[in-house]
Amino acid sequence: HIAAEPGDFARVVLMPGDPLRARFIAQNYLDDVRLVNSVRNMLGYTGTYKGKRVSVQGHGMGIPSIGIYTYELYNFYGVKSIIRTGSAGAYHPDLQLGDVMIAIGACTDSNYGAQYNLPGTFSPTADFALARAAVEKAEQMGIRYRVGNILSSDVFYGDDSERWKEWQKMGVMGVEMEAAALYMNAARSGNKALCICTVSDSLV
Questions:
Q1: What pLDDT score does 45 carry?
Q2: CA–CA separation, 127 and 7 (whole Å)
Q3: 63-76 vs 179-189: helix crossing angle, rounded to 10
Q4: How far apart are CA 69 and CA 111, in angstroms?
Q5: Are 37 and 43 a contacting pair, CB within 8 Å?
Q6: How many CA atoms lie within 13 A of 149 on its CB side?
Q7: Which of 13, 19, 45 is nearest to 32 (CA)?
Q8: Average pLDDT of span 149-156
Q9: Which candidate, 157, 159, 151, 201, places its Cα nearest to that of 176?
């Protein structure tokens, strides 16, 4: 699903869902940018940011899609850290549009983790060093943020419109559709991951 050559990706990859957002990030924030992947129009770029080599790769929508792309990046391209930069719906009443959610953990209603045949329930979590760095940078920049648990759901248009309230009762701060698979792939490959989402809407 990724046709880049070995070495085309940096060890650190930013991953928005939308490939056009990947192009926007690459063109506006990176220097010496080159396109390294365009299979299925899922665009990937590598360049430099303040002298450091960084890649940006779209991952599509949902756990199956990000599961494929991050698996290949970790296992075939030597990527060590992936930071998903996405959007999410807020469950917490204090979160406003444009606020940032830093997901230290990712609940899920997906069956993605069943493949590991674990004798219990795995808790997908972010890399602490990446999360701490994100918090420190948000504070330096004066960005409103919240750190906590999110829900990675397989369902965008659910049949039960009130189901989200059960997650809210457990302190889950919002919902998106990818972080749990990213965190599981990182754990299984011995690498690092973080999901940072901007609040695009609120169920509260």
A1: 98
A2: 24
A3: 20
A4: 18
A5: yes
A6: 12
A7: 45
A8: 97
A9: 151
Q: What is the mean pLDDT of residues 51-79?
A: 98
Is residue 141 within 8 Å of residue 158, measured between CB atoms? no
Report the distance separating Cα 74 and Cα 183, nearest Å: 12
Q: Which among 169, 150, 166 has a CA at the least distance from the CA of 158?
A: 166
Residue 36 token pair:
């390294």
What's the CA gap between 29 and 25, in Å, rounded?
6
Looking at this protein, which amino acid is placed at residue 118?
L
Residue 7 — pLDDT band, cuts 50, 70, 90? very high
pLDDT (mean) for 138-148: 98
pLDDT of residue 150: 98
The whole-angstrom separation of Cα 186 and Cα 183 is 5
The pTM assigned to this predicted structure is: 0.98
What are 32's two structure tokens?
């010496």
> Who contacts 125 (Cβ-Cβ below 8 Å, separation ≥6)?
104, 105, 106, 183, 187
pLDDT of residue 199: 98
Give the whole-angstrom CA distance, residue 184 versus residue 199.
23
Amino acid in the structure at residue 185: N
Which positions are catalytic? 201
